[in-house]
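pasting for ref
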Amino acid sequence: MDDIRATPFSAGLQRLRAEALQDGEKVIWQGQPDGVARMMMWRFLWWIGCPWLLLTVAAVRADWIDQAAHPLAMLGVAMVAAPLVMLLQDLQTLYLITDRRALILRTAWGRRTVSQTPFEAMDAVFEILDIGGGAGHLNFASGRSTRSPDTDYTGRYGFRCVRDAPRLRDILEAARAGKLRQPPQEKPAVLTGAAERTA
């Protein structure tokens, strides 16, 4: 969880990370969302979408529907595809905790975005929402726009669908308190969770 998973999107995430880090800023932890956990959260769409598609195909073959067949089929395909689309987005997302802030980097669908939350803008108490299967949401800010994929319907913002959220909360709290120091580098800076941007 502490390294970028090797996917076709890894190089783009590493480049965006290098651009987003400020001079002298040290990465204390980095990781990606648990895409499988998020996909399983939305698996009910498969329970609806698969029967929907089967019924649509049966209705078309029986000539029960004509002009409505296309939109009904597209709706079924959308329900079946949605969890897979979320998995693809998670593979193009990187979470960072540095000695100055928390960052969410995303290269999904050709759009490169960097969302940052300095320590002073974070809530006093961090919140963990367990979603099952060892994954959870770590919320560290509130009052954010609900349009963000990293915000829930109440405006709570943070790392979504991460493994071992209590450990990440402890890391973030220690980083905010200035208690974490960069450990000696044992791997190339590009891959470790304790890398410093080269000027």
